[in-house]
Amino acid sequence: MNSKDFFLSINKQLLLKTNNILSFSSKEEERIFNFRNGIRAAILGASRSNEIEFFEELQKFYETTNVPLLSMESHLILCKNFIRNKEIFICLNYLNTKLKHKAFSSEQSFWELVIRNLTSSVNGTFENSRYKFDIFIKIALRLFIKRGYEPFHLIFKYVLNHTKETVSICWSSRNMGTIIQATCLPQMQAPVMTHIWKAYSFLTEMKAAPELYEVILFQNIISTSTSFFHHRDYHSFFQYLYRRIPINTIYRESFRSNETLFEVYLINPKIFELIDYKQLNEEYLKVFNLSTWSSSRIGEFSSFLIKKIFKEYGISVFFAKAHVAKNLTTNEKTWLNDVLLGKNLVYSANLPFRLSKKVAHEFNTHSYDPSEQLSSISVTEALVRTALFTEVQDMAFAAVIARKIRNFSESEFWIKTMCLLYRNGLRASTNKLNELYDYIHYQVYQLERKIDFTRKKISNLVQESDQWHVAIQFAKVKKGLQLKRLPDFNIKPYFLERNNCRYVIKQLKTNYELAIEGGQMKHCVFTYTYVCLNGGSYIFSLREITNNMGGKKTTEITLITIEVNNNRITQKLGERNRQCNQLENNLIEEWAKKNQLTL
Questions:
Q1: With left for phi above 0 and alpha for psi between -120 and 50, is residue 490 left, alpha or beta?
Q2: Which pTM was predicted?
């Protein structure tokens, strides 16, 4: 009699009369008896409810299935699940019935994995959970019979217990926890998993490492809310891609990063044929393979390939960067679709200014220094910057002016005006350039004055700007000020500490607060009421917190005024528009990182 049969014999007798004294013909029989009573003692130590009923169900389960005798730990887990939900044995019986002809279904370690990872909700029923068992069965029949089940612990964890917490644990175990925000994951749906089989078959054909199956599983699971995954061409594209690149690059990809490639493929699949994949793979390995793996490297191959494809097809690197980062606006997506289809960008709709073929060519063929922070530059800003550079051949000047424009519908004016002023001597290094820009903006867009800039000397403009700044100082604008509430950026005041000093960065939410800030700092932030209401800007103030009256009262001393536009810090200036010192820069950088703002 084997261990399982003897366990059933003892269990049956003990259920009939729990104090029955049994005799044993071998140490193994005595061990099984002690094993069964040890399980009972552990169950009674945790809960005295349902003890008899559990052992009765366990008896039926062992008698009707080919599941071998499990460990004590598995019995205790099984009991806890049974107390929570009595349908746990129905679930196990269903799995056994569907898999009973497979060799692994009679292995103890297989069922240990199943039971360890199978949980049932208190009110859950077998029918409500049946879809996840069907998914698990399909995976087992397609994968475990060829690869064995030992390498696939993540599949047991997720499919049998598809909780958000489990996903987070699984990814963390691979040091990839930053990829997925578990709180945002949708629950897995059965139809989604049916799309995985083509990927599984392909990986088997390519003789991929077992771990890749799990990576693909997770990539597909997290895409449940993404329509691209259900697209009929997605898996064909997936195979097209991974037949041409090293199969192990899947480790460095995710569904999101593959999606950036697939979006391009849907618009114009022929441009993928422009690439010499052998050369591409050599360049990729040369650039990336020597660096240490980290979660931040997810998607690096897709990014690398997008840049190569766009370059070969004559599409701007700014489009490549923004497409990979998914930072394209609605208009910018339309422009990208146009150029992917072979159209000239100059004919696209809703451009920020009248684009010449010369500027379009310069924009699309721009070569850049890898250290240049292009990711913080939008496609629209890059277009304006290119137009300015094409006219003045001074990238520093073009970059400064393009960065200052808050409303790109004004681009035509600023390109024309700043190119005129450049010819009159204006430069990026010109003293009081910020003040001059604000002065011109106020005169043209708030007072609606028409100024002939062809006749303006820079020295005269600076003088007028100085006079205007003096005129709007707090003392002269406070009288009769009508309160206006400004849009809220929804960032709470942020407190920092450095060198035993306390600081806070907070938003100024009314024009009255701007007036006070401008009066204290002797600059023109009060006039930014207009750009806050109409140009998408938000004004923040960095302040030092000091204690007065023995620490019972605090005072805030304003240090730096900060402008944020399009999730980027466009200005950070102190009293009389001085530049930030190192400490102030460090404080603002920490705040920006915390709130996902670019500098």
A1: left
A2: 0.69
